[in-house]
Specification:
This protein has 84 residues and is mainly α. Helices cover 86% and strands 0% of the residues.
């Protein structure tokens, strides 16, 4: 693998790891009655974005993979905070 490819994998690893930690914190501090379902859906979407990233052939697919992950984290975060 080239250095650029390794950097790209490392970037996505950091994004997904940070996202999962953020969701875990929000889950633990949320009073939302459906927090389990919200977190589960977000984790599935993060995994989907990661799968796309790992199989991406174009820069558009890479960009979409990041968008999927960021949207999953942001949407779940917003929903989990609404019950605060």
């Amino acid at each position: 693998m080239t250095k650029e490819v390794m950097c790209e994998f490392e970037r996505m690893r950091i994004v997904t790891e940070t996202g999962r930690q953020t969701l875990e914190w929000l889950y633990n501090h949320s009073k939302h009655p459906q927090r389990r379902q919200i977190a589960k859906k977000a984790l599935e979407e993060i995994d989907s974005g990661l799968e796309l990233h790992n199989s991406a052939d174009t820069s558009s697919q890479l960009a979409l993979s990041y968008a999927i992950v960021f949207m999953a984290i942001g949407t779940a975060g917003k929903e989990l905070q609404e019950a605060q």
